[in-house]
Amino acid sequence: MSSEKRTRLGFVQGLAAGLALLLISGGTSGFTNAETGVAQQAGTRSAAQGGSPAESLSNAFARVAKLVEPSVVNISSEQIVRGGGASRDPFGGLLPFDFFFDIPRDQMQKSLGSGFVVDSRGYILTNDHVVKDATSIKVSFQDGRELTGTVVGMDSLTDLAVVKVNAGNLPVLKLADSDTVRVGDWVLAFGSPFGLEQTMTAGIISAKGRYIGAGTYDNFLQTDAAINPGNSGGPLVNLDGEVVGINTMIFSQSGGFQGVGFATPAAMAGNIYRQLIDHGKVTRGWLGVGIQELTPALAKSFGMKTTDGVLVSNVEPGSPAEKAGLRPGDIILSYNGNPTDDTRDLSLAVAESRVGTSAKLEILRDGKPMTVQTPVGERPAETASTTPPTERRNQGKLGLTVDDLDANSARQLNIPSTNGALVTDVEPGSPADRGGVRPGDVVREINRKPVNNVAELQSAIAGLQSGSTVLLLVIRQGQPMFLALELS
């Protein structure tokens, strides 16, 4: 178990065992009138003229609390838990707080999280993990009302969900433009930590654009405002009472808050919740390309002086990218005029593109700049890949043990043909090891030339010069990727 645990906060109470679990939450914004869309002004930035800075800040906090709290809700849900024992997290061994304790089999379990009103017709934004698999949901408001909630839609990729209650004319929080939030800006977190409803804590934005390995669309705001189990789904707001983020998770060695919390940016949440309200699901853009980071070694192999851009490792047959003429080995420099500095930038930009529109890509192909227009398709559901077998034969000069690819191995590896050489072992410290080759990889190209079997790979390796850089195209768990190997 990792010493650092990625903790999703939501209070969970097992009815039979009395086990308590808590989930954290994120932020939202100032109230708006749902009919007019005009935000009620918090007026906090001009608070307390003539007072000390501390008094001004105190007054600002109090005014934000008065504005925000009527829109913040406590969400209590029940789930039937099947399957015993603690679960391991699929993201790098960091455990969500949901799985921090063993949970008995076939047990009714209660969990507690937070949320806030985003539409006066009764729509509430929260975290997916707060209401996932819920058999019943109760939503409690500051004024004492307790209403039954139903799930309108959920999006596990961003850990967001929308719950509907049968009520109207509810006070709404406005979403801020989270892209303009600055590191160092004051923020306030609202929610129900440890079941303590209508709790507010203060802190600052510690960092932006955090990637923490939670998923494809990681782009978190980091804050030191105290968020704890039970805060999940609650708003993180600025001093105007506008939501800048949705409190979602923390890093912790103890299970409690240690100054490092993460919130989903309002800019992302706004797009997600509107789709969930309108359609009950989220539709994302898709090009149909496999991409990878352009490392210094790969950049050198492709004749580039910098690592700017994203390398195309695969183009799916029949995809929008194939129709637009994209090829493996292309380097994408920008998407609709915005630089693509890494794979996350491109993934987020494509996902947020409207299906059916056209996107302009600036690319490099064989060192020559090109502009490509590609249609944006709809992202299909992901499919699972298989784990390859391991055999041993044919030691190679790069530090590879390879074997010919038979039909059975190709099926297990999710590869449509038997072309290539299957890597069954990698010598520690070898060029292949340093370059990132792994057992189970299938070598399909070497220095941009096809490899159909072991004999062709060995023939190509025999002609390599010491000190050169070798560019391999391999298939890993069904996905092509380039690797650059430095020969010492």
Task: Write up this protein.
- By secondary structure, the chain is an alpha+beta fold.
- The chain folds into three domains: 1-282, Thrombin, subunit H (Beta Barrel); 285-378, Pdz3 Domain, CATH 2.30.42.10; 400-486, Pdz3 Domain (Roll), CATH 2.30.42.10.
- It is built from nine helices and 30 strands.
- The strands form five sheets. Strands 1, 2, 4, 5, 6, 7, 8, 9, 11, 12, 13, 14, 15 and 16 form a 14-stranded antiparallel beta sheet that branches. Strands 18, 19, 20, 21, 22 and 23 form a six-stranded antiparallel beta sheet that branches.
- The longest helix has 16 residues, at 53-68.
- Mean pLDDT is 81; it is low at 1-49, 84-106 and 383-395.
CATH architectural grouping of the largest domain: Beta Barrel
Structural classification: alpha+beta
Helix content: 10-25%
Oligomer: single chain
Assigned CATH class of the largest domain: Mainly Beta
Mean pLDDT: 81
Q: How many β-strand stretches?
A: 30
Our count of helices gives 9
By CATH, the topology of the largest domain is: Thrombin, subunit H
Overall tally of domains? 3
Biggest pleated-sheet summary: 14 strands, antiparallel
Span between termini: 38 Å
Q: Give the DSSP E fraction (strand runs of 2 or more residues).
A: 35-45%
